[in-house]
């Protein structure tokens, strides 16, 4: 049984509206500033929901490639996007929906098998299992 622990970290200085911080990953592959206006506005920087979307897209893609390989298919191209919706509700902000958009070029696969394997990958991805919000997907097999 394999057990691996990875981490991300965040640091913050100052008040919520005027302060800011940085988010980084264990490998230092990602080190970005973040602040309130990068989360709810258009200022440069990242935010937790954007990072969740990137991580989920990567997780799904790896799961999909795994499933395709196990079924005898090798993709020439896959692009995945995970759109994370954050909504204000009476009890605060909640991630209410996550939508995967997948476009792939996979020689020799038909539409039915493609969609089946994409759904299996969505269910198999560890981050999909963590997300409690409504999780939907649209998948497009590119000719």
Description of the molecule:
With 143 residues, this protein is an alpha+beta fold. The chain folds into 2 domains: 33 residues, no CATH class; 94 residues, GMP Synthetase, Chain A, domain 3 (2-Layer Sandwich), CATH 3.30.300. 33% of the residues lie in helices and 36% in strands. The strands form 2 sheets. Strands 1-2-3 form a 3-stranded antiparallel beta sheet. A 3-stranded mixed beta sheet has the order 4-5-6. A hairpin with a 5-residue loop joins strand 2 and strand 3. Helix 2 crosses helix 3. The longest helix has 23 residues. The chain is elongated. The model has no long low-confidence stretch (mean pLDDT 91).
Please describe the topology of this protein.
Layout: E1 8-13, E2 20-25, E3 31-34, H1 36-40, H2 48-70, E4 77-89, E5 92-105, H3 111-124, H4 126-130, E6 134-141
Parallel strand pairs: 5-6
Antiparallel strand pairs: 1-2, 2-3, 4-5
Please describe the structure with a list of short key phrases separated by commas or semicolons:
single chain, 143 residues, alpha+beta, GMP Synthetase, Chain A, domain 3, 2 domains, 3-stranded antiparallel beta sheet, 3-stranded mixed beta sheet, 4 helices, 33% helix, elongated
Concise description?
The protein is of the alpha+beta class and 143 residues long. Helix content is 33%, strand content 36%.
Count of DSSP strands: 6
CATH architecture field of the largest domain: 2-Layer Sandwich
What topology, given as strand order, has the largest sheet? 1-2-3
| H/E topology pattern | EEEHHEEHHE
User: Count of helices?
Assistant: 4
CATH fold-level topology of the largest domain: GMP Synthetase, Chain A, domain 3
Kindly give the count of domains: 2
